[in-house]
Write a structure and sequence with these properties.
Radius of gyration: 27 Å
Structural class: alpha+beta
Strand order of the largest sheet: 5-4-3-7-10
CATH topology of one domain: Immunoglobulin-like
Largest sheet: 5 strands, mixed
Shape: elongated
CATH architecture of one domain: Sandwich
Number of helices: 7
Length: 356
């Protein structure tokens, strides 16, 4: 077996690498991750069958081509053709019928597998999540209506269904170890299900190019036991009396949701949205917001970047648009499903970036 590790840049501009501390998975000789689902075993079979067909035909065609080039090459510049045959009906029938049969086998194999993936059993329907994709992050809503961002917890040995939704462009829900992939089309609900059989932390990718930060649009899938699920670790936000933990939690949220557009460190180069650096200034133990010009209803106004303004900008970013170019030409995604305590952690992190 070969060790497999999700590759990330050595210096992530947003801080700690999101996969720090997660053991490397293993892949087989053909580059496949081990199956961690009790369903869709046909995926690997079809993959290896297609792989074998491609290799066999490549070897045959390349071998015949090389032999023909060598054995039937022109010996002198004025040598006449050895044959004028331009058509061979039996040969053409063979190389039409044989590939057709092989392609139809692949089609039938894949179509049956597609039906298996889209026909959700009753047990999985009773354990339904919602996954919302947007540039460039994932939000998950659990059967009990709680929410998590950029990571999701499912119970081992319990089939699960995901209802998929996109709020902007085409995305794809792809968990390699579960052998599931489903395109997410804007304006439509899609569904996918799987049956996790082994505890661990596995990657979920967007497998359709969706914009500049498509490569950063991934999430962690935690497969855990029933006791861990009952504890609901995804729903734990640090309490107000733990300011350091709240800032750290806010920093993680910011890296997951906001870092692709807003500058948070001196080394960042993003210019899509206004910088978070210097948004506040610290005066003693108090954080004071800076003055900023915004467009509200087409009218330019000067406001203070206080908590109320930030909350409004997160929930309804079109209400007050930063007047400064180029920010006035860009649009921000709406994060109206973020809970109040998570928004408070984001604000705590913003204030931690204040000028002293």
């Amino acid at each position: 077996m070969i060790n497999y590790l999700i590759q990330e840049p050595k210096q992530d501009p947003q801080g700690d690498l999101p996969w720090d501390g997660v053991p490397a998975h293993e892949i087989d000789f053909w580059g496949q991750l081990p199956v961690q689902a009790g369903t869709f075993d046909h995926v690997d079979g079809l993959f290896y069958f297609t792989y074998a067909v491609c290799i066999i035909f490549f070897v045959i065609i390349t071998g015949v081509l090389l032999y023909s080039v060598f054995a039937h090459r022109r010996k002198t510049w004025d040598q006449k053709p050895l044959s004028n045959v331009t058509h061979n009906t039996p040969l053409e029938v063979v190389w039409t019928i044989v590939p057709l049969i092989i392609v139809m086998i692949m089609f039938a194999w894949g179509f049956k597998g597609s039906l298996d993936m889209t026909t959700v059993p009753h047990e999985a329907q009773r354990n339904t999540y919602k996954a919302t994709a947007k540039q460039w992050n994932w939000t998950f809503i659990y059967p009990d209506a709680t929410q998590s961002i950029a990571e999701v917890y499912v119970e081992v040995d319990k089939p699960v269904q995901f209802i998929l939704e996109s709020t902007d462009v085409l995305h794809a829900f792809y968990i390699p170890v579960m052998r599931v992939k489903r395109d997410i089309v804007p304006g439509r609900y899609q569904s996918v299900w799987f049956h996790p059989i082994k505890q661990g932390v596995y990657p979920l990718f967007c497998a359709e190019y969706c914009g500049d930060d498509h490569s950063r649009m991934y999430a962690k899938v935690h497969v855990v036991d029933a006791a861990t699920m009952a504890d609901r670790p995804w729903n734990k936000v640090p309490a107000e009396d733990k300011p350091v933990e709240r800032i750290a939690y806010g920093a993680r949220l910011a890296r997951q949701l906001c870092a692709s557009c807003h500058k948070m460190r001196d080394t960042d180069t993003v210019v899509t949205g206004p910088s978070w650096l210097g948004m506040f200034t610290k005066q003693g133990d108090t954080y004071v917001g800076r003055q900023r010009e915004v467009l509200e209803g087409g009218v330019t106004k000067t406001i203070t970047t206080d908590d109320a303004y930030i909350i409004e900008s997160i929930k309804d970013p079109t209400k007050k648009i930063v007047a400064e170019a180029p920010y006035n030409k860009n649009s921000m995604s709406k994060f109206d499903t973020l809970t109040d305590d998570r928004v408070a952690c984001l604000i705590a992190y913003m204030k931690s970036l204040a000028d002293n």
